[in-house]
Amino acid sequence: MAQQEQQIMAEPYFSIDYRAQVNLCLLADGETVPDADTLEAQIPAPFKLISEVTRIDTNNARLLRNLDEHAADLVEIINLQSQKIDLVLSYVLAGEDSPDQRYYTQSLGGGGFRFLSSTPFAEGDEVRFKLFLPELSVAVYGYGQIQQEQEGALYHCQFSALREQDRDALIRASLQLQAKQLKARAERRAQQDDAINNDSN
């Protein structure tokens, strides 16, 4: 069995093709992947803040679904407030981005992400990462181990230290992205069908 097929079978989490910005920093000699308590203490404040805001938004969405149609104005006000907060958080998170450590994912999910790099990584390299998905109000700080997917520049970063709430946020984001992609695909198919029907008439 090919190495890539083995990795796909071993991957317990769903992943989706998506281009997101990520910072990667190789661990220095003697530096190790932290335990849960040390990781929690290391996470920069903006990442903790956006995680908490996302948790609150998720709870709000659950409550809003239970309101009747007469609450439409209230729902709109809450959504606008949420958008304002997201804009501020995106600005704050921009300060966490390091251009010299910037890469872009090819796919991502709850178990890790794939990315391209013209700078070679070694199999088993340990990295600290910052993963940014501001359009989904998700930003994750953690540690991963590098695996080379194939000859060339494609690598997989498998998470080795990550808070469970951040993993859950990535899983939700993956499902949201999949839903958007499926909707867009269905709309394209419907447009193509309409075009074919119009041409045949």
List the helices and strands and how they pair.
Elements: H1 3-10, E1 15-17, E2 21-26, H2 36-42, H3 45-64, H4 72-94, E3 102-109, E4 112-116, E5 126-133, E6 138-148, E7 154-161, H5 164-200
Antiparallel strand pairs: 1-3, 2-3, 2-5, 3-4, 4-7, 5-6, 6-7
Characterization of the model:
This protein is an alpha+beta fold and 201 residues long. It is built from five helices and seven strands. The protein has helices spanning 3-10, 36-42, 45-64, 72-94, 164-200; strands at residues 15-17, 21-26, 102-109, 112-116, 126-133, 138-148, 154-161. Strands 2-3-4-7-6-5 form a six-stranded antiparallel barrel. Strand 6 (138-148) and strand 7 (154-161) form a beta hairpin. Helix 3 (45-64) runs antiparallel to helix 4 (72-94). The radius of gyration is 20 Å and the shape is globular. The N and C termini lie far apart (51 Å).
Number of helices: 5
Order of helices and strands: HEEHHHEEEEEH
| Average of per-residue pLDDT values | 83
* SS elements, strand count: 7
Relative strand content:
15-25%
Counting helices, strands and paired strands, the structural category is: alpha+beta
Q: Work out the radius of gyration.
A: 20 Å
Biggest sheet strand order reads 2-3-4-7-6-5
Distance from N terminus to C terminus (CA atoms, Å) equals: 51 Å
Spans of 5+ residues with little confidence (pLDDT < 50)? 1-10
Sheet with the most strands, sense and barrel status = 6 strands, antiparallel, barrel
Shape: globular
Assign a percent range to the helix content.
Answer: 40-55%
